[in-house]
Specification:
alpha/beta; Rossmann fold; GMP Synthetase, Chain A, domain 3; 3 domains; seven-stranded mixed β-sheet; 27 strands; globular
Length: 540
């Protein structure tokens, strides 16, 4: 039987909380004032009415490129109220990366932090659909704006000044509520079309897995343009009726001190964040905190034990999920903390199998294969990739969503994540499109061919980007530093390659497709130039 998803819309959830517990605390930004549910609901109405007043209509895409701040949430809530679509943009995107997101979604209206406006000015001619960009009112200074030929820059105070009247636009869990971009390998990044039901289930899964209540206080240091921050933490908090503190960004050096100060009971750590926290000098006060559970993924047994003993964390949670397919696997609250174990399939909503990546046929327990997922419940999964039907069909072979990740299922029905199968590179918690890295480098006048792959600098380390380059026949070999100087203004800081290697050939198939698996298996060689060893630093 299908679940009752009538109220699986963020605006409806917020309205319900504001009606039943108006004075209960919801969220604050760092040391700023706490906003209760009634205040958050009023602001969502003001912003929704403000967007409607400038012509934003049901189904319109609105591009949001902000650092963490409360206006990020008010804009999402307001857009949800009027049936518009929130397009969250990674704040590191620039050049062709940013151009692609804006042209793919054809957003007319944007909401940007002013620090990103110079990047937008650089690509203004390439994003003809974008007409008006709002910036936070506290940062609006018309005398300090970069020059735009066509795009109009206005203060978001105009939107925040909308009337507080209740909004009566019908919005369903079936409607698209958000577009999030995920990395591409054989093409540009893909915008996952996320129905409201899909967004809600992200949060509801966390509520169940962490046994969240209205007494929990979530420490949110993940960026809101990621599902982790906005759905698995901020939305989950709202669904549970709890409260949260939103940080501008993650700081390993003050992480546990900030958690103690804000009396947080829950937080998330992703990938290398675990290592960054553990590398900080230990303090006698580290174990003095209110944390009752941390969602940390992925973690080794040693990392888990180090976090537990140093910070006195009673319990940990891991999940397996993706922007496209939600959180189909999670560890039950009462299950043991087995590092590396993602948990059991959430059978009410999903089917998951481990399959041979070449045939899509299910493999026996214990064998490693590709993790394939499909939904049992409509609109709790992505609806496809925006304006990329061929990519949607490609990932949905044989009626299964292909995660591109390797895993195994044990005899208990618990899934263990192993590694990636596809060519996506994951660094510092960010998915990197190898295609887009290669596209930037191919613009360099000396380069004929290039392949970007993931390598590890040390055993068990995180992904680093290696680019293997074939130069044009008449080109002089450029300095690696000069190539990175070329990359820095054209790609996100986290995508700038760490390793550069000039090669005579790149392995290909008979049909001329680059065999990146061979480059990954080969790994680093003595001829690869390392920017960290050379002292070349890339600033965020």
């Amino acid at each position: 039987m299908s679940a009752d998803k009538t109220n699986w819309v963020v605006g409806k959830v917020l309205a319900d909380q504001a009606r039943t517990r108006p004075d209960a605390p919801y969220i604050r930004f760092e040391d700023g004032p706490m906003h209760n549910y009634a205040m958050a609901h009023e602001l969502s109405n003001r912003v929704g009415n403000g967007f409607a007043a400038i012509g934003v209509e049901r189904g319109d895409n609105v591009a949001v490129m902000l650092n963490n701040r409360l206006e990020y949430l008010w804009s999402w809530f307001g857009l949800s109220r009027i049936g518009a679509v929130h397009v969250g943009i990674n704040t590191a995107l620039k050049g062709r990366f940013l151009t692609h997101v804006l042209t793919n979604t054809k957003a007319r209206i944007g909401f940007f932090d002013p620090e990103f406006l110079p990047w937008l000015a650089d690509i203004e001619d390439a994003v003809p659909d974008l007409q008006t960009v709002y910036i936070p009112g506290d940062a609006y200074d018309p005398d300090r704006l970069p020059a735009f030929k066509r795009i109009e820059i206005r203060s978001f105070d105009e939107i925040m000044g909308g009337v507080a009247d209740e909004i009566d636009v019908p919005v369903s869990y079936r409607d698209i509520g958000m577009i999030m971009f995920t990395s591409g390998t054989t093409g540009p990044s893909k915008g996952a079309l996320m129905p409201h039901g899909h967004l809600y289930l992200f949060g509801q899964c966390m509520v169940e897995d962490l046994a969240m209540t209205d007494q929990d206080h979530y420490f949110i240091a993940m960026p809101l343009f990621h599902a982790q921050g906005i759905l698995m933490q901020a939305f989950a908090t709202m669904i549970a009726g709890g409260s949260a503190v939103l940080m501008k960004q993650f700081h390993a050096s003050t992480w546990i001190d900030d958690i103690r100060k804000h009396k947080a009971t829950l937080t998330n750590l992703l990938g290398v964040m675990n290592d960054f926290v553990l590398r900080q000098p230990a303090k006698p006060t580290d174990a003095d905190n209110d944390l009752r559970m941390v969602c940390a993924l992925p973690v080794t047994a040693d990392t888990l034990q180090a976090l537990r003993s140093r910070f006195n964390i009673p319990k940990f949670n891991e999940v397996f999920g993706m922007t496209e397919c939600n959180l189909p696997v999670s560890r039950p609250f009462d299950a043991p903390d087995d590092a590396g174990c993602s948990g059991r399939v959430r059978e009410d909503y999903f089917e998951v199998i481990i399959a041979d990546p070449d045939t899509d046929e299910e493999l026996p327990y214990g064998q490693v294969g590709e993790i394939l997922v499909r939904p049992k419940e409509p609109f709790c999964f992505m609806a496809g990739y925006n304006a990329m039907p061929e990519r949607t069909v490609e990932v949905w072979r044989n009626f299964w969503f292909h995660s591109g990740d390797a895993g195994r299922m044990d005899a208990r029905g618990y899934l263990w994540y192993i590694d990636r199968i596809k060519d996506t590179i994951r660094r510092r918690g960010e998915n990197i499109s190898s295609f887009e890295v290669e596209a930037v480098l191919l613009e360099h006048p000396t380069i004929a061919e290039v392949a970007a792959v993931a390598v590890q600098a040390s055993e068990g380390g995180e992904d680093e980007v290696l680019v293997c380059i074939i130069l044009k026949a008449d080109a002089e070999t450029p300095r690696p530093e000069d190539l990175l100087d070329f990359c820095v203004p054209r790609m996100p800081y986290f995508a700038v390659p760490r390793y550069v290697e000039f090669v005579d050939e790149i392995p290909t198939t008979p049909t001329a497709k680059i065999q990146k698996n061979k480059l990954r298996e080969r790994g680093l060689t003595a001829t690869a130039w390392d920017r960290e060893a050379a002292g070349y630093h890339v600033r965020r």
